[in-house]
Structures are given as structure tokens and as C-alpha cells.
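cron nightly-structures :: item 1 of 1
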Amino acid sequence: MTADLDTLACGGGYLRADEVLLDRARQVGGLRGEDARPGWFAGSQERFDALVRFLGGEESGTLDHAELETRLDRDGRELVRQLLQDHLDLHASRETRLDGVVDADGVPRRCVETGHGRPLATVFGEVRVERLAYRSRGSENLYPADGLLNLPAEKHSHGLRRLAAVESSRGSYDDTADAITRATGQRLGKRQVEQLAAAAAPDVEEFYAHRERSPLDPGDVLVLSCDGKGIVMRPDALRPATARQAAASKKKLKSRLSKGEKRNRKRIAEVGAVYDLTPAPRTSKDILPRTDAERAQAAAAPAARNKWLTASVVSDAAQVVARVFDEAQRRDPDQHRTWVALVDGNNHQIDRITHEAAARSVPVTILVDFVHVLEYLWKAAWCFHNEGDPAAEQWVHRHATRILDGNARQTATAIRRAATTARLTRTQRENADTCANYLMNKSAPDRAPKRLADRDRRHRRRLPPPRERPHGHHRRPLGTPRRRSNPQAARRPRKRRLRRLLDLPPRPRAQTRPPVTLRQRNPPPRMTPSGRAAPNSIPGFRRSGAHERPEMGVRAGLLSVWPGSARVSTGRGYSAAGVKS
């Protein structure tokens, strides 16, 4: 909490600007401006003389430089603390009574008492501040001098609070207390450090909300980033749904959680960031150089500027993403710049960003962090290489370079094909398939084959123009037909169209063999009891209705058989029995 004249302290008594006017206080002699008498800094002068005598004496000559550093650090800090104390005493002696002092409720403060002091812990040590107290029966005391000095409501000064806020963001509260002790020589407890860090936080949101926008180049990119991290929580701090799942699960051990039991014990902490970035064109060699020469010639990566961060364990992903978009709109209200969202591939975060962008009518390009892509590639590499094999590094570098060149879908196809060629089992190729699915799902969809198929169908009058409903006999299910034997393979005509589009030579066709003419071997006719041949057993006869009659145009018992085919043909217009149909 920052105290000034426009702030009324909670229980401490800061005055507002309408309660005491500094100009009037100086005019009526609230602080006398005469020079200080020599006796006011006698304590400081005494400590300084003692330090000078020590450095000029024989004792200092027996110390090395490290011991001298320690002694001067301790005595010098005490000297500065005494100087601050003498100045505060002088400030208290110059304070005079003000007339017409009223509080925020309009209650006049006519009673003034001296001798009211308060401790103040500073970076040099603890001092005491004396000031006048303006009192009224049934009301808290008012201290105009606290407003003049901008004293905090708590004991610790703004210097200590600044150190607590800075150091607490770097590590634990225990490490923060140790860092403050090393920097100032003052020892603070863990609870005090925690309270100081929390007291410095309330003004952060208000500060960033009203901060002026810095002038930027319209070509700079506005980057939005979101991420989530699971944190193990106490049972009473879990979300309701997670708490129910945790209560239904059974623990193997009583004293700690076993492997796999932290699933329902965590709460996602959502983190968001917004920063400005000047685009820096780079190639795959600049990002993943292979040799020292390429590394020396690689272009520098762009640096983030004006970074804004937010994080919350209480708010969900939707609320954090909304705050990120609020900050982005504050920086670019007219949407003249390019917006880019950087994510790690989490589908829920991508959905929230897409929903928020659609609700605000803002075009946002979503990019997946390349570091996460490399993790998937390394997991897939161990499907084809042994642990620690140097060839795995080359394999990852080759596929990562292809992905950076914009061939993510082709890389996924190559990984699947390599797993199939190596005849890996489903368990052995699990990470390879996971990597391929990740690349296919996160990469931009390849719409070229669909456009080619749609254009070809419209050319054949099988599809209506875009945005029109099929009619007549063209109303049939759309989509690319697949072969039943291999549903993932396209039909042969579609492959030929793609080869013509890519200007590839036609594949050589296998030579077809001419049909082999075979002589038909008719079975002997079936004889009747009277010794005559049955009509149905004579070639050229077949039953038609209730009687039998001979057919004309019988072919001379020849069948055409194509080798390698189970189909038997009798030529055009003839049945399998050699009868014209």
C-alpha cells in the first residue's frame, strides 16, 4: 500500500489533501526552514569520528581486506542509520501546530499532543519517528507529518517492501528473507516477508490497467501466450469436481501419494502473457544450425518487449484468456497490428482463444511452441533407435528442419511410413503414431486435394457450384470414395489426376496377355429311361417356361478365358453354355 496525501490510512491516520494543505502548512510555519543547529547531528558525527579513528589506528592494520569489508559494511550501515535518525529528529523539532485541521468526516481536531512516536524499519536499521498528534474524543489520531514523509501504515519502509516484492518473485519466502539480510543486514521473519509481498500486490492490476501505451511501429507483432501448470493442492482447495474424484479414489499409502495418484490432487494454475515483438525473418538453419559456421551466420532471434504477465489459481482458463485479450485490446484498440497466439498445443486453450477471438471479431493466428514439437519428435525417435544412439539426433534434426520449412503433414506421413516399413508392433510404434497425430492435428489442413477433387467433379457436372444444394440425380453423398481393401488409399483416377498436376510421367503399365482360346468339353448327354437323350443335357437347349425348345445361333463350343482371372466370358451375346442370350 503506497501512502500519500490523497490516502487515508487504515487505523494509522493519513490526511487527505482536503484535510491539510502542504502549501498552507509551509506558509504558517508547519515546518520551519531554518538551518539545523550543530547539536542535531552530534550522534552521527561521533560515529563518523569513531570510524575514522578505527581506520587510522593500529587495529585496522592487522585486518585483511575481507575483514575490513565486513567491519566497514556493519559500521557504515550503522552510521547511515544514525544520520537518518538525526534527520527525523530534526524534522520533528521543526513541526509546528496547524489550525483548522478537520478529518474526512468534518470533525475538527483542536487538541494537539506531542511525544507521539512510531518505529520504522528501514534498509539501514530501525529508527523512531516523532510527530504531533491531532486528537478528538471518540476518533482516531491524525498525523499530518506521516503524510509529509509518506510513511507506510506498517512498520517496514518502502525500501524493505520493494526488496521483499522483488526477491519473493525469484524464489521462496525463506530465500527472500536471506536475500534481504545479505543486502541490508536486517533480519525479517518468513511471515513478515509474506505479508510485505502481499501488501505490494494490490496496486499491480490498477497500475497496468491505467498505464499509458508506448508508441510502437505498426509492423510490430502483438503476441498473446497462455499456458497451464498443475499444482498439488490441499483437499479443501480443490475444485468441486476434482474434489469429488479425489474422494472416490483410494490411496495405496497413508503418508504420501503414490505414482499416478496425483491426477485428482492438482489444480491448474493458468498463466497468460502479452508482449510486443518486432518480426525477424529466419530460416530453419538459423533456428537449428548444424555446424559452427551456420551457427555463426545465424540471424538473431527477436526479443520480447513490454511484457505483461498474469496468473491465477482461482480463475479458470476462460477468465485468464479474457484478461489476456483485454490487455491486447488496450495496446491495439483499432486492431492495426498482427495478433499471434502462442500455445503449447493444449486443445482447451486453443478453443478458448478461438472463442474469444470470434467474440471480439479479432483475427488471431495460432502458433504451436516448437519446443513441444521437439519433445514429440524425440519420443518418436526412440521407436527407431536405441537409447543414446547418435543417429537419433540426426533423425530428429532432419524431421525438425522439415517441420520448420512448412512440411509438418509430410513429416507425419513419413514417420508413419517408416514405422510401417520397420514392421513395428502397435506397442513399439505408439510414440511414433502419437507424434504423427500431433503433427497432423496441429498443422494447417491441406486443402489442395479437396480443391482438386471438387474442381474435377464440377467439371464433370457431378457437383453444383459452391454454396448451392445438389439437385436431381446429382444429389448423392459427397466425399472421396475409398477402396474397401484399403480405406486410406485414394482411387486410381484421383492418383492419375495428381500425377498430371505435378507434371510427373505416367507410370508404365503391365503388358496384358492376349486371351487364350480353350475348347469347351461338353459332358455326355443324360439319357432317359426310353434310351433317348434328355433335352436339358443337350448343348444348345435350356428350359424356357414349362417346356423345352432348342435355341438358334449356337456358338461352336468355344469359351474365352483370361489367365489370372476367375471370370469366364463367352463373348458378346452368348451365355456360359454357348447359347446366345
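cron nightly-structures :: done
The CA atoms of residues 116 and 384 lie 79 Å apart.
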